[in-house]
Write a structure and sequence with these properties.
Elements: H1 2-19, H2 22-36, H3 53-67, H4 69-78, E1 81-83, H5 86-108, E2 114-116, E3 119-121, H6 127-149, H7 153-180, H8 184-189, H9 213-234, H10 237-252, H11 256-271, H12 274-289, H13 291-296, H14 302-312, H15 314-334, H16 364-389, H17 391-394, H18 402-417, H19 426-440, E4 441-443, E5 445-447, E6 450-452, H20 468-480
Antiparallel strand pairs: 1-4, 2-3, 5-6
């Protein structure tokens, strides 16, 4: 059944793009397979990357791009954009280059095999470069699509709508698993995608069709912020009730970390003005960007964090302390090869004299610094944090609407959540890519055949010798020649 689902999606994805405009098809073409295709399963192809959930999403997008190129072109012409930040584009190029350089560097710097008792870890070989680059390309494709096609506030609102709708649907499946136990994946695909025992928490923590219950909790956090942003932007009561329901499900889903991040994000979103919201997300992005160094230098208040966890649950505090001790040991090993890391094949992990793997590396940050070193870490996390770090600069040239601020808060939550977990998903890449597009491009207005960027288009905030009413009338007449853009259908 799992094999059939993956192969079937490669047929369904182009059909989706045939039926819908490019932007809605892109949104549904990432959200639907991410939320419903099988986890922990892959179709092995000799000499080619495996087809799993993530690669199936990317292959579906590439097939659609090849078959319906005109639709993607039309999506750009309907809302034309102009490049407004060459420095940001340079930063993105640099981060992508560092990511590729780390792959080559890791292979060149790990030519020796490692032996731990009876366990032999192979050396990296030249052809590992090709497979690693192919995997990386498949991994970040949603980011590249989103950067170009989800660059405007209108597309951000469409993204939030799809996330909210799918979040509401997922809450119904979560209620089934909260009541009956996490069984849906086993019922549909015939196997558990993760340990069942980890999802018994004074009741059941739902997994649905995602990798782990923690991933489900983070997606519901994302949907909660999305619904709250739609309510703030549109003032429609249905989005308020959607946000309230999603927050309630998040609260009962037994995901303490996602719930805490959700409370923090909602407090920032509704309690602070725009400038302070931007400052908060920028501060978090800077901390995460340099987190391994801050952790090694003991600037992260580990003891205080553990003490706070102990006030909630002694068992949770013990589990957290065990994980932190593991991360300290893994970080010490990672800095034996600080620039390029240890590469794949579990070479970054710790083995005892019996050849047994005794380490736990669940956080995305420790996985990246261990396997790819500082070069790979700055490449990956620079790619994720750069759109957030540029928001203060962007704010000087254009307003940041609630929809975009919500994406920034979701990105902030994702960065925090990647400290203990590896929740960098295709939906995450869509969100970070949409932020990158907003920073890099400005919406251009076409007046009399001339394209104006946000810097040169008529602006009512500029000084003018005309009285306010006369000036407004002049600008309305100018913009009326453009025609109105069609709303995005979701």
């Amino acid at each position: 059944m799992a094999t059939a689902a993956l192969l079937l999606w490669l047929i369904v994805a182009p059909m989706l793009f045939a039926a819908l405009p490019a932007v809605p098809a892109l949104l549904w073409g990432v959200l639907l397979p991410y939320l419903f295709l099988p986890e922990a399963y892959a179709i092995n192809l000799p000499g080619l990357p495996d087809i799993n959930k993530t690669s199936a999403i990317t292959i579906g997008l590439m097939l659609a791009l090849a078959l319906y190129w005109n639709k993607f072109t039309d999506a750009l012409t309907q809302a034309p954009t102009t490049l407004s930040s060459r420095s940001f584009r340079f930063g993105l190029t640099l981060c992508l280059s560092l990511s590729l350089l780390s792959i080559v560097g890791s292979v060149l710097n790990n030519q020796e095999a490692l032996r731990f008792g009876p366990t032999l870890l192979p050396a990296l070989r030249p052809w590992d470069v090709i497979s690693a680059i192919a995997a990386f390309a498949l991994y970040i494709t949603p980011f590249l699509f989103a950067r170009r096609y989800l660059a405007t506030p209108e597309t951000h609102r469409a993204l939030l709508r799809v996330i909210t709708i799918m979040g509401l649907i997922y809450t119904l499946l979560m209620l089934i698993e909260i009541r009956l136990s996490p069984q849906l994946h086993a019922w549909v695909y015939g196997y558990y995608q993760h340990s069942f025992a980890q999802h018994i928490r004074d009741g059941f923590r739902p997994m649905v069709f995602l990798q782990h219950g923690l991933w489900v909790g983070f997606f519901i956090f994302t949907a909660t912020i999305a619904a709250a942003a739609l309510w703030k932007a549109e003032k429609k009561i249905q989005w308020f009730w959607a946000a309230l329901w999603l927050f309630f499900i998040l609260m009962i889903s037994r995901n303490l970390g996602a719930f805490a991040i959700g409370v923090l994000s909602l407090a920032v979103f509704f309690g602070l003005w725009t400038r302070m919201q931007v400052r908060v997300v920028v501060a978090v992005a800077l901390i995460i960007l340099f987190y391994p160094g801050l952790r090694q230098a003991n600037f992260i208040p580990i003891k205080q964090i553990t003490s706070v966890a102990a006030t909630v649950s002694a068992a949770r505090a013990g589990s957290l302390q065990y994980r932190l001790d593991n991360e300290d040991a893994l970080l010490e090993r990672a800095f034996l090869k600080p620039l390029t890391g240890w590469g794949g094949y579990k070479r970054d992990r710790i083995f005892n004299e019996l050849g047994q793997d005794i380490s736990i590396s669940e956080g995305r940050w420790i996985q990246t610094i261990g396997r790819s070193g500082w070069i790979g870490y700055i490449g990956l996390f620079g790619l994720l944090t750069l759109p957030i770090l540029f928001l203060p600069i962007v704010r000087r040239r254009k307003a940041i609407p609630p929809e975009t601020l919500a994406l920034g808060l979701i990105g902030m939550g994702n960065l925090i959540y990647m400290i203990p977990n590896s929740t960098l998903t295709p939906v995450s890449w869509l969100i970070f890519g949409a932020l990158a597009g907003f920073v890099q491009y400005d919406v251009a207005a076409q007046i009399g055949g001339t394209v104006f960027s946000a810097k040169t288009a008529p602006n009512r905030n500029h000084y003018t010798r005309f009285p306010p009413k006369a000036q407004a009338a002049r600008e309305d007449n100018a913009y009326s020649s453009q025609g109105s853009h069609n709303r995005l259908a979701v």
